[in-house]
Design a protein that fits this description.
The protein is of the alpha/beta class and 170 residues long. It has 5 helices and 7 strands.
Length: 170
């Protein structure tokens, strides 16, 4: 299983920092982005967990590479008429999830290259980083095998968090 994120012309280093953190939390393999806005602003990134050290982040001329992406299922996440609502979507094993810019939409030619178009059924559009988080959480929530022990909690929580569920709650 592999998760790749494609972000079209992101403008906000805050959003990209949050996307990097989400990518790390949900174990994405790579992030690619188009445009110049983030390249100019990335020094101001809010990647507080330094996910960029473990996830390949690449500026690309086009969000879809027909040769290198042939084994990935391309999924556009956009408010597009005829799209599938996220709660009904079955995530592919190996996916490239494509997100539009904060101040625009995914171009029609990119949508036309995608295998699926999915939308999150909210009233109004969500923030880019929030959309990435919701999509990645949905993928995790729909996994057939879910960790049920405390290992992931122990390895993921903040160093100051040693709280446990008390016996009173059991």
């Amino acid at each position: 299983m592999s998760i790749h994120l494609g972000i079209i012309n992101p403008k906000s280093p805050q959003n990209m920092g949050s996307i990097l953190r989400a990518a790390g939390c949900y174990q994405a393999q790579s992030i690619r982005y188009t445009g110049e806005r983030y390249a100019r602003a990335k020094a101001f990134s809010t990647d507080t967990k330094n996910a960029h050290l473990n996830i390949m982040v690449t500026q690309v001329p086009a969000i879809i590479d027909p040769i290198n992406d042939k084994n990935l299922t391309k999924v556009a996440i956009e408010l597009v008429e005829g799209a599938t609502p996220l709660p009904l979507f079955v995530h592919p094993e190996d996916a490239l999830y494509i997100f539009g810019p904060e101040d625009g939409s995914i171009e029609q030619d990119v949508v036309d290259q995608c295998d699926y178009v999915v939308y999150i059924p909210t009233v109004g559009c969500m923030n880019l980083a929030a959309t990435v988080n919701v999509l990645l959480y949905d993928r995790l929530a729909k996994m057939t095998v879910m960790p049920s022990d405390d290992h992931i909690i122990k390895t993921s929580r903040d160093t100051n968090n040693r709280t446990k569920v008390g016996l009173v709650n059991k």
